[in-house]
Design goal:
Helices cover 19% and strands 17% of the residues. By secondary structure, it is an alpha+beta fold. The protein has one domain. A hairpin with a 2-residue loop joins β7 (182-192) and β8. It is globular and about 55 Å long. The structure holds iron/sulfur cluster (2 copies). The site of one iron/sulfur cluster has 13 residues, from α5 and α7.
Length: 293
Amino acid sequence: MTAFDEFREHAGYDLVGVPPMSCFDGLPPGEHPLSIFPDGKSVIVVGAHIRRGEFRSMEEGSLWKTPGRWLTSFEGIVRYIESEGYECVPYAPLDAPKMPKRPVRDGLCAPNAVRLSVEYAAVAAGLGDIGYHGMFMSEKYGTRQMLGLLVTDMPISPSLMSAASVCDKCMACVDACPLNAISDTASAQLGCNGHTMQIGAINGNACRACPNGVSGDSKYFAGADELHFEIVNNQVAGDAKSTFARGGLPNRLAAACGRACIAHFEETHDTGYKIPFRVREPWGFRPDEKRGW
Ligand code: SF4
Ligand code: SF4
C-alpha cells in the first residue's frame, strides 16, 4: 500500500485526493468509478489551480474567454504510476461513434452509460465542498481549479477528510444572478463521506440561456447533484414540486454567479493578489431584455 503523502509528492498537482472506496458504495454501475477499470484499487482526484487572470476579461466584459473546469491531460501522473509497475485509466467523457450501447460482458456497464461525478469524488477525497451555487470549491482556491479523476490498480491509502466548509452561505452568487436562477429559499442537502452541503435549487434552463459568461462543455460530465437525482426536462423525476433542478448545467465558473463567488472568496481568504478581483460594478444581462446583448 502506497502512503497517501508519498503518492501526493509524486503526483505533481495543486490538489490531490484519494477517497475511500466505501464512498461509492451503492452507486449505480454507471456512476461508480470502478466501471472504467474493474480491477482498480484506488480512485485519484487531482486539481490544477486556474490563475485569476483567466477570469479577468470576462469580469471586465472585454473578451469572451472561459476557463475549462475539467482536466483532460494526465501524462505526468500516468507516467509515475506506470513507473511503479501499475496501470491507471484517466476518466474522459466519451460519445464516440460506434461505441457499444450494451456491456461487452455480464456485470459490466455499457461504455456509453458511464457518467462519473468528478466533483462528488473530489468532496469524498476531502478536497473541498460543493458551494450553494452547485460548483466545487476548495479551501485554497475557491472555485478556481480544474478537476480530473483517474482509477488505478495501485493501492493508495485514502486522504484525510476536511471537516471545514468552504461555502459560507453568503448568497453573493444568488444576488449576482441577473436571471434569478438560484433560489435563496429552496435547496437540497447533499451528503458525502460524512460531509453535508446545502445546495441551492437552480433553474437549469436559465443557466443554459445565460448571457453572463457560461460556456458549454461535455454534457457527459455529471455534476455532483446529478448522481442523486434523475433529471427529466429540468425536473427531478417523480417530484412534481421541483420546478428547478441542476441537470446538465453548463460551465458556470466565469458566469456572473461564479465570478461573484470569486470576489467573495477573496474578501474572506488571503489569495496573495495585491489588487482585488472585483474593482468595479459587475455587469449583467437578461436574455429577455430588449435585444442589444
Ligand atoms: S458566493 Fe457565497 S453562497 Fe455562493 S457558493 Fe460562494 S461562498 Fe457559497
Ligand atoms: S449561469 Fe447565469 S443564469 Fe445560471 S446561476 Fe449563473 S449567472 Fe445565473
